[in-house]
# Entry
Amino acid sequence: MPLLYLAPAQGRESNDLYANAPIGGQRRPGSSPPPGRSLASVSTWDRLPAALRRETKDVQAALSDFESRTNATLDEKERLLQASPSEKMAMEQAKARALDDQFEALRRKVDGDAQK
# Structure
């Protein structure tokens, strides 16, 4: 304990000059900005880290999506390589039926529009 005790200044919790100082370049939650500094006076260099954090999150989400789609494609190719000839034929027939259904739906839509 110091020899001389000073009561905290009015409006401050302690005499420590750095008690309310920013930590790691960021303000503590609930603290007000320094006097004379508003959002309008924040420079580009102050906004850059926040923008980079947002971009990092977007890139990570895109990479995660890309990774999941790539893994699904590789899994499908592995199944195709490990399938027996009869299973391969059944897979191709299922794909052909799906395409036929799409063409049939398109044909009905075109014929329905032509009759109106």
Residues 44-82 form the longest helix (39 residues). The chain has two helices and no strands. The helical segments are 44-82, 85-115.
